[in-house]
Amino acid sequence: MFSLAALSVLKAQTPLEQEIFSLLHKTKQPVTDPLLTPLEEASLRAMSLEEAQLRRAELQKARALQSYYEAKARREKKIKSKKYHRVLQKGRSRKALKEFEVLKKLDPEAALTKLEEMERPRIEERMSLKHQNKGKWARSRAIMAKYNLEARRAMQEQLAKNKELTQKVRVEPESDEEIDMTGEGLLPDSVNQVQPSMEGANPWMLGKPSSEAKDSGTQEDPKDTRESAAPEDAGNEEEVVSEEEILLQDFEQRRCARQQQAGSPERHSEWARPDVEIRNSQPRESRLGIWSPGQVEPAVQEPEGPLLSEQLGRLQTLEEMDALGQEEGAEEQAQPWPTRALQGPEEEGSFGEERPARKQKKMINLQAVLAEESHVDALGADLCLWQEEKEEDEDQRLMIKEAFAGDDVVADFLQEKHKAEQAGKPEAVDLVLPGWGEWGGTGLRPSARKRKRPCSLICLIVSQVPHQVNELPFPFDHCQQFERSVRAPVGPTWNTQRGFQKLTAPRILTQPGHIIQPISAEEASPRSAVPIRWNLAGFSCSHPLGGRVA
Amino acid sequence: MRVKVLSRNPDDYVRETKQDLQRVPRNYDPSLHPFEVPREYMRALNATKLERVFAKPFLASLDGHRDGVNCMAKHPQSLSTVLSGACDGEVRIWNLTKRECIRTLQAHEGFVRGICARFCGTSFFTVGDDKTVKHWKIDGPGYGEEEEPMHTILGKTVYTGIDHHWKEAVFATCGHQVDIWDEQRTSPICSLTWGVDSINSVKFNPIETYLLGSCASDRNIVLYDMRQSTPLKKVILDMRTNTLCWNPMEAFIFTSANEDHNLYTFDMRFLESPVMVHMDHVSAVLDVDYSPTGKEFVSASFDKSIRIFPVDKGHSREVYHTKRMQHVITVKWTSDSKYILCGSDEMNIRLWKANASEKLGVLAPREKAAMNYSQKLKEKFHHHPQIKRIARHRHLPKAIYSQAKEQRIMREARRRKELNRRKHSKPGSLPFVPEKKKHIVAVVK
Asked: Which residue range or ranges hold the Sof1-like protein domain (chain B) (predicted)?
């Protein structure tokens, strides 16, 4: 109908046009100049290719998260273990009490209402006397109690529970009393209710993965449910599709918020930065607090530490040594655990999320999905797209070129790459000190002549970053000193023969086959005639019989 | 016709006599030899790798004893002779160049507890579980003679160690107490005792030769002055010391091998705190011996390894182990500072190189120069991470590795606990005790 109308409006002016229009009419293609339907046009305008990619990635993430939470909820519902529930309840009650404390300080009225809520289980217990051992079970146990120790104990437990529940609520955070398994206890019921969602109608987006993982009860959880998680994950994907629309709206809002920020990618860094993650600030401070008195402690024997790195494998060929070098990159991230253990308790708080994340890696590769950098993917995909187009028709290529005339994808990508490279490079530490013949003090710029170049970066080719020293070694105070010590060549190519011999002379010279006698008391005494040379360690070296110690 | 030729004066490029070096015209302009640092770095890296490739320290195993080797003694004048005493009372004299036993004698019934050579090198002493001290000649018996000691001293108690004076004809034994004997007499010239427990080992100071040190079972190290005939002072440690050894280049420094897996280097003038605590073994350290250069020492431990420590460092620079070597009871560093001998529980004495990748024998001057150069380069670049990692890599047997890991965990736990305690108690209520002082209980004069 549209094309007919168009035909009637348009008049084919040239025979070529006529032919084309007839062709188009036959195949029922739109005839007018913009070759896209209005709907397509609108959607094309609505999002550029990049945004489409972004949205796709977001959807992926959302789906993954959803499936993860669903699986988790399903798992947790299945747990029947009493110990687990007891522990869970304990944790929840503690948390509730803490929140109550906080609420008391912030909003006393709300605290009052919450207190009333917390009273509710007590009221219920007093009204119903559920644990007063008057039910069918309790009566049967009472008969058995005379002969059976276990039955007696069970009854006593029930009575104890009754006592607890009828106690008035004390608002102390360390209430380690046993809490009823069925969920009634010192908890307000609101803890068990689903918290009202803050953002949209998405119940799956509640809570934080780290806090869930930190729950004390989850120690048994991964063990029990690791096997069941895998088949469950497969089944979840289809069910989630229907909720995509809700998520889409959600992400619209998020994207708008994100576009307002600077366009730097969110790096999923392992080390918490205090400006980015506020919740890690406290453990970080406590970490600093612990270390400041610790550093005063003169317990360190030597700054070096063990001289050998003792391993289980042998290094016998040059190839194995080269392989050792390449492993270093991986090793540096997972620090050798003794040093890690040194920071053990401080780490626990801030990096606790890392460990459960690692534990749960077997079940779902959530972290990997979340850590995807979508915009890089977008550009990469774009490049592939670009290449694919070359193989297809010229028309389509032209069309797309027109559509994305505004984006210079390749240039953008190179820019990003350059940025990433720059970030990866070690920072040039600017340790400029005014030296001899210059004024020192604050606010004075040292002369341009003395501008400092980064430590041993001029000496070694910049591409050999793994070969450079990470931190200033012990005896040196300044970068410059170390650099100078490394720069002076020792070899015969750069020094005269005599100079080379003097530079490479060994510190201890012994004659093979000669017995080295201990030093004599006269030589060792301070007023000896024989000149004694002292080496760096403060030990004397002099001339015993038969051996020459230089 | 004009012919243009190049002409040089042979005086400029030919050496004057056959004794001179060849003249090599060199231009030391740095612009002609660029990239000095990267080139030297690569040479250092290759040198480090080759050092690890050529690190094969094990030389030989001396086989012959029929029971575990309990003690060893070096011949003071001959580098190729070593004496060893076994747990079945047998004493053997070995020739290291031929790697064979040149003499065997049945010295005692029961363990040979101690053996020491006289400073002149013509005789040696042994003590055993049969409460005797025997004086033997190094040369074997002549034709028709029997294997007999020159001299036998019968005592009342078991002697657990013996050491000879470095200059005079005096020796000291230890057991129930420390006795100082003159070679001609059959009863000690003086007996020194401080405390009620038995004494494991006694050693004379090679430099200040009137000084003695001994290790007792009640965890203390006692120092004596022979001239005064009284004990000088003692230091009480956490755990018992097995042996001690005096530094041959430092008059007052000695190192003690302790049961708590550590070695302590003391200055005898300041016994309150050791000069250094050497930690790396994972089981009791049984024996220690100094290199004649006085810069390093070797320690033998109940975990089946021997370690070489520099005197001024708290950790070892080398560890030697073999599958066949069981608990190492005794260790000696030969007098030319090139080899290490260790006697172990499984009846073998092993010969090792002190520097694992050293080339033995006579080296051509170019070879020596090249080796000096690589050594210097390794030292220059040893801070760089790649070189450091390769140079530090050592193989450990699984048992020692897992033990070490476990002990590391324990140490870290203790340290963390202390930190927490300090954090949660009043500042100043928990004093900082340096690592060195932690292991010393008291010093008594």
From this structure: 354-440
Percent of chain B residues topping a pLDDT of 90: 83
Cβ atoms of A102 and A94 within 8 Å: the answer is no
Instruction: Give every residue of chain A whose pLDDT is below 50, as ranges.
Output: 1-2, 8, 173-187, 190-191, 194-195, 197, 199, 210-240, 262-302, 333, 335-362, 373-385, 450-462, 532-550
As a whole number of angstroms, the distance between CA A300 and CA B188 comes to 46
Sheet of B262-267, strand order: B241-246, B253-258, B262-267, B276-279
Q: For residue A186, give both structure tokens.
A: 């010192």
B78-to-B61, B122, B180 alpha-carbon distances in Å: 20, 11, 27
Distance from CA of residue A474 to its chain's centroid?
31
Q: Does A487 touch chain B if contact means CB atoms closer than 8 Å? A: yes
Nearest to B401 among A312, A515, A547 (CB): A312
- Helix A220-240 and helix A82-106: axis angle, to 10°? 80
Q: Is the pTM of this model over 0.90?
A: no
Find out whether B391 and B383 touch, Cβ atoms under 8 Å: no
Instruction: Give B81-88's long-range contacts (Cβ < 8 A, gap of 24+).
Output: B81/B138, B82/B332, B82/B334, B82/B341, B82/B349, B83/B115, B83/B117, B83/B124, B84/B115, B84/B330, B84/B343, B84/B349, B85/B111, B85/B112, B85/B113, B85/B114, B85/B115, B85/B126, B86/B112, B86/B347, B87/B111, B87/B112
Please report the pLDDT score of residue A272 as a whole number: 37
Q: Identify whether the C-beta of residue B412 lies closer than 8 Å to the C-beta of residue A341.
A: yes
Task: Convert A31-54 to b/e letters by CB count within 10 Å (16 or more is b).
Answer: beeeeeeeeeeeeeeeeebbeebb
Interface of A with B in 390-449 (CB under 8 A): none
More reliable by pLDDT, A413 or B37: B37
* Distance between CA atoms of residues A307 and B354, nearest Å: 17
Any B CB within 8 A of A550 CB: no
Identify the helix (H) or strand (E) that includes residue B75: none
Q: A316 and B53: CB-CB below 8 Å?
A: yes
Q: How many CB pairs under 8 A join A and B?
A: 228
User: Using alpha carbons only, how large is chain B's radius of gyration in Å?
Assistant: 27
User: B60 CB contacts (<8 Å, ≥6 apart)?
Assistant: B99, B350, B351
Residue B302 pLDDT grade (very low, low, confident, very high; cuts 50, 70, 90): very high
- Total residue count of chain B as it appears in this document: 445
**A332 chain-B contacts, CB cut-off 8 A:** none
Helix ranges (H only) for A404-454 are 409-424
Rounded CA separation A95/A100 (Å): 8
Unique residue bearing structure tokens 């049984």:
B286
What's the complex ipTM? 0.87
Which of B38, B312, B392 is opposite residue A460, by nearest beta carbon? Answer: B38
Point out the residue among B40, B317, B375 whose CB comes nearest to the CB of A307: B317
Within 8 A of A503 by CB-CB distance, chain B residues are 376
Mean predicted lDDT score pLDDT of chain B: 93
Is-contact B221 B215, C-beta < 8 A?
Answer: yes
Tens of pLDDT, residue by residue over B75-92, are 999 999 999 999 999 999
| Rounded-to-integer distance, Cα B218 and Cα A497, Å | 59
